[in-house]
Design brief:
The structure holds 2 protein chains of 2 kinds. Chain A is an all-alpha fold. Chain A is built from 4 helices and no strands. The longest helix of chain A has 27 residues. Chain A starts with a helix and ends with a helix. The longest helix of chain B is centred in the middle third of the chain and has 28 residues. The radius of gyration of chain B is 16 Å and the shape is elongated. Classes of the chains: A mainly alpha, B mainly alpha.
Chain lengths: ~120, ~140
């Protein structure tokens, strides 16, 4: 992982999550904005997959367990599309809130991935 | 009286189900990894984590499910979770070797922002509000 990219990922996921939660509790149906914000979170995760593959080759290996890292990353990649599919099928205010919950979960997972990559030694 | 539509997968209950689904995924995936790589460190705690993960999956399905049977299943699984997080949370304070910090229920779910402690309570409130006699 790359520190600044991780911070961007967490910031975008938190912002998208809070935005969708507020929109959901305000009674908004899933819109291009909330769906687009969730899609942006997913795009950043896919970039993270590329970084996860490339970084060890460029001399930046994880200090923690690489298997645990990938379990988190693969799980994370699956969550936003699931929330988006949910929002497209069930176009109610609570689906917008679900988008928010999904994005906030991604923020936590990216934080944990950073801990595995940078903090754990041995 | 037969219920055709789910009375629980509505309104804010859907957000509850989404949170349950994410927690089920997190707890199950993590315990599978722990059992595969460091089972010897704390077998009891990691097996309980796996059990917790499976129960979260059942609870998620029961919250979506229709009718009174799933309603009972939802109650049983959610009560089990609250009992689990309280019991293991307390034990992890007493015995840090048997219950290390990295399981879903240790320290009342601290590693999961205390969601495992709060979620069963919200789940019970929701089940009570959507009880069959109140919804019918």
């Amino acid at each position: 992982m790359i520190p600044w990219f991780q911070y961007v990922e967490i910031a975008v996921a938190v912002a998208a999550g809070l935005f969708a939660l507020v929109a959901g509790f305000a009674g908004r149906k899933p819109s291009d904005y909330t769906l687009g914000a969730t899609a942006l979170v997913e795009v950043l995760l896919i970039v993270q997959v590329v970084i996860g593959i490339a970084a060890p080759l460029a001399g930046n290996p994880p200090t923690g367990d690489v298997v645990e890292f990938w379990i988190y990353l693969v799980s994370a990649v699956l969550i936003p599309p699931a929330a988006v599919v949910w929002a497209l099928i069930d176009r109610g205010r609570w689906s917008t809130a679900v988008l928010g919950v999904a994005c906030l979960a991604i923020a936590v997972m990216v934080y944990r991935m950073g801990q595995i990559w940078f903090v754990q030694v041995g | 009286m037969s219920n055709t539509a789910s009375s629980r997968a509505v309104g804010v209950g859907r957000v509850l189900i989404a949170v349950y689904a994410i927690l089920a995924l997190a707890a199950t995936a993590r315990s599978v990894y722990q059992i595969a790589t460091k089972f010897d460190v704390a077998p009891v705690a990691y097996l309980l984590s796996a059990l917790a993960g499976v129960v979260y999956i059942v609870a998620t399905i029961a919250l979506i499910g229709r009718g009174s049977t799933w309603y009972r299943v939802a109650w049983v699984t959610i009560v089990f979770e609250l009992a689990g997080v309280l019991a293991v949370g307390t034990l992890s304070l007493v015995d840090g070797v048997l219950f290390p910090a990295d399981t879903v229920w240790s320290f009342y779910g601290r590693g999961y922002v205390f969601i495992p402690l709060v979620l069963p309570i919200l789940g019970m409130l929701w089940l009570y509000r959507r009880r069959p006699s109140a919804v019918a």
